[in-house]
Amino acid sequence: MESVIDQAFAAALYTEGDAGLDTGASLLAAAPQADAELVRRGEEFVRRAWQRGWLPADVVRLVRRDLDEHAAGLAAGLIASEVRRYDELPPRWRTQLDELPAAPPPGRPDRFSYASALLALYRLLLALPAIEPVGPPPGAAREALTRPPAAGEPRMLTRIRALLAKAEATGYPEEAEALTAKAQELMARHSIDEALLAARTHGDRTPGACRIGVDAPYETAKAILLDAVASANRCQAVWNSDLGFATVIGFEADLEAVELLHTSLLVQGTAAMTRAEAGQRAGGRKRTKTFRQSFLMAYAQRLGSRLADGTARATAEAEGDTADAALLPVLAARDLAVTEAAEQMFPRTTTTRVRGATDLDGWTHGTRAADRARMGGDAKGIGR
Predict the structure, then answer these.
(1) b vs e for 176-186, b when ≥16 Cβ sit within 10 Å of the residue's Cβ?
(2) Which residues of 313-331 are buried (b: 16+ CB within 10 A; e: fewer)?
(3) pLDDT below 70 — which residues of the chain?
(4) Do residues 226 and 183 touch, judged by C-beta distance below 8 A?
(5) Using CA atoms, how far apart are residues 344 and 342, in angstroms rounded to an integer?
(6) Which of 29, 145, 318, 323 has the greatest number of C-beta atoms within 10 Å?
(7) For 225, phi and psi rounded to 5 degrees?
(8) Distance (Å, rounded) from C-alpha 22 to C-alpha 24?
(9) pLDDT tens column, 146-177
(10) What is the rounded distance in angstroms from the CA atom of residue 195 to the CA atom of residue 184?
(11) Three-state SS string across 210-271, please?
(12) DSSP summary character for residue 311
């Protein structure tokens, strides 16, 4: 049995080109008795990905981008079967596993196609580079995997998610602005409370990290938007354009705010862009790509300045509301801890020159959309 798999792997995984894949798939298609071992080998490749710093969502995202949705489903099936061997999983893993796509039935649509798809997936998994870990691996000690939640945290996050979902669904900009403002106010209060509690109890002094996908098209504008949201929440974002994600470094409450707010603002921005583009098309213009690129660039740039203003205002208001003279030193200490953690995780980073926007209409509409997405004058902003 193993000799058939070894021959198939030698042909398909360690040589380039489609001919090797076809040879390996033909060998496996003619050996149904090798199916169980073939899946077990795939689980080993997935396990190596964990050792190289990858998370389930990272693997599926890359497979979907470089192969197709069918391969992403095959990867999800391997991941689901591999993680059954662990008694403990890191907290972020549970959410990612719940969001995996459905695995297709084995052997479909035929044995050759199934084997060919698996071998292409294994070839990709085998070539995964080592990346910076953003949390403990599965199977680590219990104390490394769990963090006691802050009082009221689940209820607070549920309220924030509900507000942002309503902001994304409404067709009225004023209502979206009010809902987003309220969500941001809750984020700000929660983040400040977390910082003060950690300072008093000497807990949560070490920043963590998470990865957020930055998908094509217009990934540069999306990365700029994510960086703006991260900065406003006292986090730092490092974008890996080759692998299609950004690593965000910060304290847990702030990372949660970044994930929620970035997703919501991207949804709101995309919806606003689609509406603006429809109006442009109705007027007879056809330069859709340049319009979208300029729209999203303006949207990200404008939100960056608005979010920075909101953070400064929220910090000043919190300092006045909180009878704790240590608030600003606490925030400064956390900022320093985040910077040190980012420099330790990424000792060598480079800057990228951003291609300028070339469509004035797109830039104008994107700026207006950012103004509608930002918080109202009475809101406390995001971050702190």
Answers:
(1) bbbbbbbbbbb
(2) bbbebbbeeeeeeebeebb
(3) 1-2, 140-154, 203-204, 283-287, 321-325, 352-384
(4) no
(5) 5
(6) 318
(7) -60, -45
(8) 6
(9) 444 444 455 777 888 899 999 898 877 778 87
(10) 17
(11) EEEECCCCCHHHHHHHHHHHHHHCCCEEEEECCCCEEEEEECHHHHHHHHHHHHHHHHHHHH
(12) H
Cross-sheet strand order for the sheet of 208-213: 208-213, 245-250, 236-240
The pLDDT, as a whole number, for residue 111 is 95
The predicted pLDDT at position 373 comes to: 60
Dist. CA 268–CA 260, nearest whole Å? 12
CB atoms within 10 A of CB 263: 16
Q: How many residues make up the chain in this entry?
A: 384
What are the C-alpha distances in Å from 143 to residues 136, 146, 207?
A: 10, 6, 16
- Encoded tokens for 363: 């830039």
The closest of 88, 190, 223 to 144, measured between CA atoms, is 88
Contact 175, 211 (CB under 8 A): no
pLDDT at 88: 85
Residue 3 CB coordination number (10 Å): 10
